[in-house]
Amino acid sequence: xxxxxxxxxxxxxxxxxxxxxxxxxxxxxxxxxxxxxxxxxxxxxxxxxxxxxxxxxxxxxxxxxxxxxxxxxxxxxxxxxxxxxxxxxxxxxxxxxxxxxxxxxxxxxxxxxxxxxxxxxxxxxxxxxxxxxxxxxxxxxxxxxxxxxxxxxxxxxxxxxxxxxxxxxxxxxxxxxxxxxxxxxxxxxxxxxxxxxxxxxxxxxxxxxxxxxxxxxxxxxxxxxxxxxxxxxxxxxxxxxxxxxxxxxxxxxxxxxxxxxxxxxxxxxxxxxxxxxxxxxxxxxxxxxxxxxxxxxxxxxxxxxxxxxxxxxxxxxxxxxxxxxxxxxxxxxxxxxxxxxxxxxxxxxxxxxxxxxxxxxxxxxxxxxxxxxxxxxxxxxxxxxxxxxxxxxxxxxxxxxxxxxxxxxxxxxxxxxxxxxxxxxxxxxxxxxxxxxxxxxxxxxxxxxxxxxxxxxxxxxxxxxxxx
Length: 468
Prior knowledge:
alpha+beta, Beta-Lactamase, Helix Hairpins, Heat Shock Protein 90, five-stranded antiparallel sheet, five-stranded mixed sheet, 10 helices, about 50% helix, about 20% strand, rod-shaped
């Protein structure tokens, strides 16, 4: 089934609404018109009967008979024909008639079109419907006079129908003729009203990939403003995602080039060496380069996952203390191989935050790994996760070389390494920590260490409302 355009839908919907409103009104008007015509005709019929009764009483029956003979009303008892007045080809007298009966039911006066109608029941005056030949008649019978006369007036129903049809033609034909014109005008109005959508489609069609220009439509209606805002917001998010992907690709190409080249050189040296000892050393160096490569890839992937999973509706309740214990257990081999004293202080019970467990684990892991890499032998690290009112506070304190206050903001840049820094880091640890903190509406500060030298990294994460 082919889908109609928005213009076609709007045009037909508007026409449908108009028809939905006008059709009941038309039916109601038809009924009201018919009722009014019937009431008016009944009133006229009753008035005619009473007028005839008054004339008979005032003039007398013989004089009325002579008058009717001159005007075309037959006075049979003997005569069976009548003269009819014809105007513009229409015989109006044939649609109305009168009867006058005496107290015995004998006709005294009767029009020619009602000679076959039976005498009325004097005990049942009022309106009555009968069929006479091919026509239906509306009758009105007056109660008998003091002299015993009974007067009855009649009118054919097709006379009333002609009046109703004339009224409907007069009042209904103009709207019927106007409907096609209305449909054309509605089509023009809808097309004109949807011009901003055409302008928007043209803007989208001519928009260059990667453009950061704000999408704007001149004289945009208020209903289109949310669409423009949503599109501009989506374009910004898309450009941000594309820029993130480009940056990640460039970072990967840059950061993996050195360990891959080092691995290849060591493998070539091992292959070319005829000395088993030298070949073993080259293979050992190649293995170390591959281990460094694996760790660098893992950090890059962690950073990519953090940047692509920041939706607030994907958060869940996470026990920060349980994550901290899991990270300490995961890093226990690294902690055991280091000549560093690690002091762990975890709060009792649970510290529940709304967030992503993987991101929180990456945050804690990189904080602890950074401290382990930058603390000299026999140094000390204090790892604390505590509660402070409505926040969970993570503190990692060391007595390493530290970072001067004027350079602390720069260390969050990816792949940034301080000159002369110890360890084999790649400048990604604090970038991962910062991104994870942003995902949890947390704050992160680099402060002086209370040991007199070194660094204190403090992260504050809002607790889940149920843990307040």
